[in-house]
Amino acid sequence: MKENYPIDDHAPEFLLEQKSSMSLREIMNNESFRMQIRTIDTFLSLARAIAACVGKLHQQHILHLDLRPELIHILSDERTVQLIDSGYAIHRSKHGYIRPSDGIMEAGLPYCAPENTGRMLRTIDERSDLYSLGVIFYEMLTGRLPFLADNPLEWVYMHLAQSPSPLTNHREDLPEGLESIILKLLEKNPDKRYQNIGSLIADLDKVGRSQLTLFIEPELHGRDYEISVLTQAFYSTCFGSTEIVYVAGEAGIGKTSLIDEVFHKIQQSQHFFYITGKFEQISKESPYLPIIQAFRGLMRHLLGERQDQSELWRLKLQEALGNNANVIASIIPEVSLLLGEVPFEEELPANESKKRFIYVFRKFVQALTSKEHPLVLFIDDLQWADDSSLQLIHALLSDPECQYLMFVCAHRHLDTDQSKLPGYETDGSVTEQATVKHIHLSPLSLEQMNQIVVETLNSDAHTAMSLTELLYHKSEGNPFHFKQILLHLQDDDILKYNRDNRCWQWNLGQIIEQEPSYSIHDLMEHRLYRLPNIAQELLFAAACAGSTFDPELINVVVNYGIQDMNTEWSLIEAEGMIVPFESGKYRFTHDSIQKLIYSQIEDDAKQSIHSRIGRCLRENDDGTGENSFEVVNHLNRGSEKITDMQHLLLLIKLNLDAGNRAKTSSAYDVALAYFRKGVELLPADYWESDFELSFELHAQQAECEYLCGNYAKSDQEIAFLLHHARNPVERSRIHIIKIMQFINQGKYLEGTDLGLKSLREHHIFISPNPSNLMLLIESKRIELLLRNKYDKLKHLEEMSDREQITAMNLILAIIPSTFFTNKKVFLLLMCRAIQLTLKYGNTPVSAAVYSAFGMFMGNALGKYDKGYLIGKIGVELSEQYNINSIKSKSYTMFGGVLCQFAGYPQEVDDYLSKALRCGMDSGDYVFASYAIGAHVNSQYPRTSLVELSRTITDYMAVLDTTNDEFVKQNFYLYQQFILALQGMTDAPDSFNSEGFDEEEFLHRIRKEETSSTTFFQYNTYKTQLCYLLGRYEDAIHWAREAERYKIYATHLPHLPECLFYQLLATLSLAESSHSKIRDRSKKKLERDLRHYSKWVKWNPTNYQPRFHLLQAEYARVFRQYFKAEQMYDAAIREAREQDDFQVTSLTGELAASHYWGRGKRKSALFYLQMSVDGYKQWGIPAKVAELEEQLLHWQREEASQTSESPAIRLALSGTERASEYANTQKVTNSLDSVDLAAILKTTEAISNQPTIDAMLAEIMNTIIKYAGASKGALLTGNDDELYIQAYVDAETPAFASPVGMKDSSLLPEGLIRYVFRTHEDVHYYEEEESWLIHNPYIAKHRPGSALCIPVAVHGAMLGVLYLENRLASGVFASDHKAVLLAIASNAILMCVLQGSSEGNPLSPDLVEAGAAVSDHIIEEPLTERELEVLALLAAGLSNKEIADHLIIAIGTVKVHVKNIFAKLKVNRRTKAIAQAKELKLLG
């Protein structure tokens, strides 16, 4: 790699003298040449050329990374600078710039940027080369390096933690501003350096001018706070947060400029997606228009990526969107270009359609946002937003699964209702998931405005102030207004440019004398009417078209299509009214300009222009429908001009179509506007001449009125439609709308009543309170109808009768309302639906009906074999139709109920996972929530409490979206049950805890229509809890309470589980009862066992182990001991095969009790240990503690208390390990040897320093240099007392240690105590938002970086290491933590081992910590198999029993035992067990 760049006319004389090429190092070493390059003109000439050469590399996305004088060559023949590649240059990859793994050569260390040392949590980029240029320029000007060091460790430390001395210390003749340039290049923090080569060269060009003009860059003034808020929010987004920042202020105050400036600047140094959209003041009535505009731009960008990158995005979006890709592609056409052909989405009821749209759009955004690609979406002019767009923003912000997303929304605060903004709602749903911030831009001050004048007119501040003071109050501190005043003065020749003097001049007296109008309206009007009439006409049409427009379209609209209007457009642009936009379009320079022009147009002229725009757009439509909303919107605005009935009818149909398109996207307020407009345009006689069109428009309006919260208006429209409906099909269409409204409001009974009433019109009569006899007759009838027809169900003809299809849709509409509130009606509905299907053919509804009837056959009739078969047919038929809303219902009923009782656990998981996905994809949140509930219910009898709790927590995030209170309440109950089992509630048998009142919960549930199901679950949990607590009578009581709600629990695994624990409790009581009482209970026990055996018959996989345990207990109670032992073993064997640790735990405990009572103590200990292990896996600590205590009581021998503690080894073990690791690596460069150097210096300090104080000081110096810190401390202590064992700070003299820390004057006391208590690592970086900003020390000193980590060895806490860098942010990378801990732990341990030769006492905590560590040192760890053998030894098993248990040879067991004895330094089993417990190898 070689890059050349010519040197300007100030080329140094030595170019004429030297050989063809010399390195900059050779020139600097040549005394005569060195004096030349130190002259300012020569330096500037070379510096510009070198910088430009580096800039050419950066334009190619290449970093040099090894810039130094040896690699910069001056070519005399070509008068150019050339860069030489040393092999470290890198190209930008798709992940950005990646630091080379082989580091930097030692020769490059003096010029190495801090972030390139590998010691900072920052990536390298172009600014890394700029730092190296700073070092080179410093050396060229002063003849010395800014830092001096003699080894790699020192060099790294200097670059990270030390500031260079001022250049003026070495030479005083530097021109104004040059030193500032060099020091800016040498900033530790890359964000404070120049952001690109261009900015550096611009400032080099200004050297020698006045300070006032040197560093004035085209940036914002007076907005430092606002910039910091936006920047901090962005970096929080980069760490995974979801953020929204509102930027408020009046028109022209600089909201858009501020936001664009901040993010364009960040884009120079960080890769992220920045997309923008803007609401129109003249609404185009297009749903989510700015959001869609923004994402369309992003999709175009992705389409322009390389093929491999585009393919990755395609796969990512395809996985996220699935079959719902068309939901997004219909509004963002570029998605289909990226994905290819996408399937049409399923047509859904409005409410489910909205849920689907929100869900799919969330998935779309989730796919686009990541740690590698944070997304910033800037929405301008939010004050003009429609409700649907605000709701979409709300949905994205409140998405619990969304990360790396930032909204920035600009709005005019005087025109905005803040209470409607996402994040300011009373429910707090946004603030739970996202951070909301608000910035208000105030008018600029006089001084800030004067700075703008200085920049604009290139004048000095004093001269400009007189003009600023005169005009400031006219502009009221608004920068846009102020600039318009300056333009006006220029137009009037009051403000002129003097070419001779190269400056602007003005006459204050003339300004005061003429007193022109300075109102923003007058200024804009002045500019408008300066234009020719043709240009004004073009602008009037453009203002009607929108803030952005196509000039060719406007030419046609104003009938100048044939003529060339380029001259007029250029004139308008030169006047500052418009600016070029993408794809040959223009946009107005500011909203105020468009608003003014639009207000100048007469109403009749507006209508005419809008009509012409609408017709032109429609004529030019390419068939994609991309401009369909805009077409209808313009035609609507000109509708009063329409007199032709055919044109009017066309517009009515266009409004219906536009409303349906908006409704499909869930933009109900936009859709309602189109439906209302269509109804408004309907002539009075259209009910007679075009009934279908009139009915459809009113029906859609009725639905959208409700969806927009206009309930009274919706009811009025529904009554109006029912009055006009001509037949049952049309009335049912309206009834279904009302039924869905009832269900959405939780009024299940009212929805059911209306559905049954509507079905009567279709000759389907179902009583709301059917008798049991009716149920029996209907179920038998369906069984007879289905006999031998299962295989034919999938192949029935399609239903075509319109009335019967309507009846099936009515039945489907009231399935959710009847399932949990009226099981009898639910069954009859299924029976009627199957009858209709068998008679008229299949519909998609039939698939859900088959699954529902299969569920009924299993639950109610106990025929799970047949129920499973017909349910499977329903699943296959739903997959055949491939309609997600139907699949979600079929999968939920089949997987959540039929597979639970007649299938396999894997089937349950698979089908419910698909049910959830289909439910979310289709917006069927009711069945998506049921799928979630069913999945958790299926896990309840077969997973650990930890896994169950984790599953519930994960699903809670989904329930925040589905908002299903029924499932949520059941999950709250689950969580309390888990807490009770874990011993974390107020009492062992209570569900009360902080934030949960059991009585209040039950009182609230009683009011719900679905309370019966919840109460059965509640009583089941109480039954199980009381049994595990040994309260058998209470367990039986709760099981009897559950009986009342049994009919509503037939679909739950809780039903057999409740009976299981009831039987265990009854058998436990029977064992201790008198023989007569036991005999009297025998018949009931046998009856209940027969009942339980039905589940075993249906699903032996799930229920056989439990049944074996019940049989074992029954045999034990009735003195059939041999059979009992057989059944215990059978239960354990099958439970282990199924990985059912719940049954293993229970069986082990009961079997241990049995064997202990029978005198088989060894077996009892074995089974009890098995039970303990099982309960640990289950996650019930109270049972574990109880049984472990029992295990100790049952030990045949008391474990010996004597033990052999291993001698305390030299505390250098950590250092030796780290050193050994370092020596095994191939040292390829100097930076990689830093770890080794630090370790060796630590070893030398321990070996050579005469006192502990000297040793600790030397080790701390090594630590801070290795880490790149400017301050460091080693502390020991506890929550109450803290002792500083070692302290190093360049600005504070050392003091004798140890010393107690009493306050935060030297160190952040609160932070250190936090680490002592939590044992957590804490990192602080200046740019990040952090809870540490509230720490007094951090708030006062604001270090660039801080690190506080616990120092522990073998799990024993020794102390805390605190490090701080005042200058640089992002220091203390985690890669080097291991070496830091090794050094720090040795420092503290040496205090323990050596004491203080000077008589300084060690703190008591330090001695205790050291002793704890020394006791835990074991020279060689035990293998996994040796740990298994050790555990069995502790259980009292012989070598033969261990061999049988582990299925290995006895000789192998003996070898393991010998190794265990050797590693633990013991010679007996009892001593091995005791020593293992001391070392925490055994519980």
Automatic annotation (TrEMBL):
Top-level lineage group: Bacteria
Residues covered by the Protein kinase domain: 1-216
SUPFAM superfamilies cross-referenced by the UniProt entry: C-terminal effector domain of the bipartite response regulators, GAF domain-like, P-loop containing nucleoside triphosphate hydrolases, Protein kinase-like (PK-like)
Molecular function (Gene Ontology), one example: ATP binding
Pfam families the UniProt entry points to: AAA_16 (PF13191), GAF (PF01590), GerE (PF00196), Pkinase (PF00069)
Residue span(s) of domain HTH luxR-type: 1415-1480
Keywords: Transcription, Transcription regulation
Alphabetical GO biological process terms: negative regulation of DNA-templated transcription
Protein name, UniProt field: Predicted ATPase
Originating organism: Fontibacillus panacisegetis
